[in-house]
Specification:
Strand content: 25-35%
Number of domains: 2
Distance between the termini: 43 Å
Strand order of the largest sheet: 6-7-8-3-9-10
Shape: globular
Structural class: alpha/beta
Number of strands: 12
CATH topology of the largest domain: Rossmann fold
CATH superfamily of the largest domain: P-loop containing nucleotide triphosphate hydrolases
Largest sheet: 6 strands, mixed
Number of helices: 8
C-alpha cells in the first residue's frame, strides 16, 4: 500500500496554548484509522489541520506526497471529504441539493451539471440508501437519516480520503450500528480510506485497522487496533480503571469502565 498521508512533528499553538505537540504518523491508502482520546486531547483539532481549516505552528504534512500547504481548497476537496457530528438536519436545503453541492470541487465557474456529476450522485445515493428522502428538506430528517445524507455528500465528492468527527454521536443505538456499517462498507468494498474521531474504544478496536490515541495534544499510542485493549494502555490514556469481558456474539474482547475508584 502507498502512503496517502504523512504527518511529521506536527504542532499547533493558538493564543500561547499548545493544542497539538509533535504529532507524527503515516496513513496508508485503503486504511481505516480511528483517533481516540479523552476530551480536549486534540482529536478534532487534528482533523481541522488536515482539512486546512486550522494552520500548524510547525511540522510537515504530505498528502499523496504533496505538501498539504501547496494545495488550494478546491484541490484539497478533491482529495479529502469530511463528515461532522450528527447535526445535518439543521441545514435548510433539500437533500438532493445538499448532496449535489458536494460536486463543487469538480466544477468551474458556470459549468453545467454533467453526466459524471449525475453518475457520482446516483452512486452516492445508492450506497447510502438515501433514495426515499431525496426530495425532503434536511430539517425534516432524523439524526440517523441526516448523517446518511452527510455521508452521501462525502461519497459524491469522490475523494479518496474521508474524515469523520464522531459520526455516531447523538444517534440512538440502531442508527449508530447503521452508520458504522455504512462506514465499514465504504472502506472495505468501495476503497475509501477512513480517518474517524471516536469516543467508542470498543468500536475502534473491533472495526478499524489502526488506532492513534492522543492525550494532552500528544501521541500516547499508535498501532494495530487489536492491541489497544490492554489495561496499561487504557488506564494511561483515560486515567480510568477498566474491566474486560468477551462479547457474547462475536467473542471479541471488550473494555468497560470500572466503577471502582482509583
Amino acid at each position: 500500500m502507498s502512503i496517502l498521508l504523512d504527518v511529521q512533528e506536527l504542532s499547533v499553538e493558538i493564543a500561547d496554548k499548545s493544542l497539538l505537540s509533535s504529532i507524527s504518523f503515516q496513513f496508508e491508502q485503503g486504511d481505516y484509522l480511528c483517533i481516540l482520546g479523552p476530551n480536549g486531547a486534540g482529536k478534532s483539532t487534528l482533523l481541522k489541520v488536515l482539512m486546512g481549516i486550522v494552520g500548524s505552528s510547525s511540522g510537515d504534512i504530505k498528502l499523496n506526497q504533496q505538501p498539504l500547504l501547496s494545495l488550494s481548497q478546491k484541490e484539497l476537496a478533491r482529495q479529502i471529504s469530511y463528515v461532522p457530528q450528527a447535526h445535518g438536519h439543521q441545514l435548510n436545503f433539500s437533500v438532493i441539493d445538499f448532496i449535489k453541492m458536494a460536486r463543487y470541487a469538480h466544477h468551474f465557474t458556470f459549468s453545467d451539471w454533467s453526466k459524471e456529476d449525475q453518475n457520482a450522485l446516483d452512486h452516492a445515493v445508492n450506497i447510502t440508501n438515501t433514495e426515499d428522502f431525496l426530495y425532503r428538506q434536511m430539517t425534516t430528517l432524523s439524526g440517523g437519516e441526516a448523517q446518511r445524507v452527510m455521508i452521501a455528500a462525502a461519497v459524491c465528492q469522490q475523494s479518496p480520503l474521508l474524515l469523520l468527527d464522531e459520526p455516531t454521536s447523538f444517534l440512538d443505538p440502531h442508527h449508530q450500528v447503521e452508520v458504522h456499517q455504512l462506514i465499514q462498507n465504504l472502506n472495505q468494498h468501495h476503497g475509501i480510506s477512513i480517518i474517524e474521531v471516536s469516543h467508542d474504544l470498543n468500536h475502534a478496536a473491533q472495526h478499524s485497522n489502526h488506532i492513534l490515541a492522543l492525550k494532552h495534544g500528544k501521541v500516547m499510542w499508535n498501532g494495530p487496533s487489536s492491541e489497544l485493549l490492554q489495561y496499561e494502555h487504557l488506564h494511561a490514556l483515560y486515567d480510568q480503571q477498566f474491566v474486560f469481558a468477551t462479547h457474547p456474539q462475536t467473542g471479541a474482547l471488550v473494555a468497560l469502565p470500572s466503577e471502582m475508584t482509583q
